[in-house]
Amino acid sequence: MMSGPLTGIKVIDFTRVLAGPHFTKMLSDMGADVIKIEHPETGDLARMGAPISGNFSHYFVQQNAGKKCISLDLNKPEGRDIVKKLCRDADIIAENFRPGTLSAFDLDYKNIKLFNKKVVYVSISGYGQLGPLRGRAAFAPTVHAECGTAHTKFKHVGTDLNDFNNMQSDFSHADVYTGLEAAVSCLAALHNAAKTGLGQHIDVSLAATMIAVNERAHAELAGMDDREDEPYALSAPDSPYIKLSTGDIAVIAASPILGVVFLRYARMMRRLDLIENPLFKTAKLRRKNYKLLMKEVNDWASTFRTIEDLEAQVGEVGLAVGKLNSMKEFAEGEWGTHWEAIRNIEDGEGGTIKIPGLPWKFSKTKCKPGNHMATRGMDNKNILKELGYTKKEIDDFYKKEVIAEGIF
Q1: Strand locations in 96-210, DSSP E?
Q2: What is the pLDDT of residues 276-288, one digit of tens each?
Q3: Which residues are catalytic?
Q4: What are the boundaries of each domain within the chain?
Q5: CB-CB neighbours of 227 under 10 Å
Q6: Which long-range contacts does 198-202 make (Cβ < 8 Å, 24+ apart)?
Q7: CATH superfamily membership of 10-214+330-399
Q8: Paired residues of 403 in beta bridges
Q9: Taking the complete model, does pTM exceed 0.85, yes or no?
Q10: Confidence of residue 42 (pLDDT cuts 50, 70, 90)
Q11: Check: CATH 3.30.1540 for 249-323?
């Protein structure tokens, strides 16, 4: 039985692929009753994402475990009627279609609020529901490029596209961050609705999110460039990776180019002579001679046999170090076991699919997310029965192809 601080909250989920499903998955993990609506033939495209075990894509399961799934055709009046009944007492409705898509079915906020004034309606899109780019398709790589996220990295490697392509991130940051922003704003609106009895429409943009979460936005907007002088404190791109004598790799979370940090490096390495070295006297010189500086750092790092010994010496000057791990080995290690960093989801054929555990723990309200996964339309009958439809009506819906079931 699912439980958590959002127990009793009903969510109608029109979202697909990543940004929206990640958002609604967080609500589900906190106890909300999330009903995912899919097309009766195609379903969520993410169901086809490799690898696949049993009846499920691992990618799909990570973003949708614990949700109920109903598959119906919005092009048919009966399908739209079913959805409107579902929305009548919904607390939250989420969608990430291109702006205007659901208005064609009278399922946009303007129409839903006519019979559900308390609903919080969250729309996720690339560039917002209004404005000059509202109709454009948006995917994480294009948003990363347009909003400056990729440009920051581009400055580090110059204009060589081969080098730049090799440094591309494997992660859809725009989608995941936008899902997080959607969750926070949604819960704020839900709190307000509890006080006023009135919901509202929340417009969440991938582009706006990537500008908002850019920790260097203030400098970019001021036309400043850390490449020319002192880098930002704890500048992530300049945090050096080093190799121990055992071959283990670790990162020190601070840039030796930054003046005050360089002094700590010199003390940490027992190399105060570096402070007076004319090659490293200023930030510009340390950047210019970065390879020489890093040779000194790596020569020092190669004297350590264990990450623990390295961490102790780095810690003497108040810096942090972390060993390079795969996500799997860290999640299955001592810390991951203690935190319960891995969840097992039933794959429908007696096996399990591993997904990340919960990233938060409540001191009073224990979260017990669902460890099941639904195939497309698996919950059709139960959901329709709860809405008051008879067996004959449900059978007719199947015959008329208003609803359907399938694996993918």
Answers
A1: 120-125, 200-205
A2: 999 999 988 998 9
A3: 175
A4: 10-214+330-399, 249-323
A5: 12
A6: 198/117, 198/118, 199/113, 199/116, 199/117, 199/118, 199/119, 199/120, 199/121, 200/120, 200/121, 201/109, 201/121, 201/123, 202/120, 202/121, 202/122, 202/123
A7: Crotonobetainyl-coa:carnitine coa-transferase; domain 1 (3.40.50.10540)
A8: 72
A9: yes
A10: confident
A11: yes
